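Hi there, hope your week has been kind to you so far. Thanks so much in advance, here it is:
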Amino acid sequence: MSVTILARTVLLAAGLSLVLLAACQVAKPPRLELASIGPAADIVAVHATGESGAYRFEVRVQSPDTGCGQYADWWEVTSQDGQLLYRRVLSHSHVDEQPFTRSGEPVPVEAGMIVWVRAHMHPSGYGGTAFRGSVRDGFEAADLPPSFAADLAERPPLPPACRF
């Protein structure tokens, strides 16, 4: 009798563990989190040229712009710990130009400094694909949670009213 109870307890615990494991796996995909915040702007390419401390960044952005109510309103470069190093403000939507490339300079980074490049979407905020890397070694897409340095959304420079 005790063997049967032990077996049922083990099976129940194993079943509960599988259910909990499945629930954890369902809740973790990055795009599931993005779906809850709204449309997101993705960085699709980053290229930098110039000299140490004053690089020119060319950033390609793909965003679901619909006009001034929903558009990518900036891209930015941050340090690994979330300090704003540079922001390129975009003053209008790019409905008919997707993806689009915009440059910005001077970006005050050293050649080997690891930075994040991400875009911001009006009105939903951060959350799209970001790029991580350095001028020396290049940049590639990497996971960055929308909550990373979210307070930067309130710091200047901020875009003026959308022009079109």
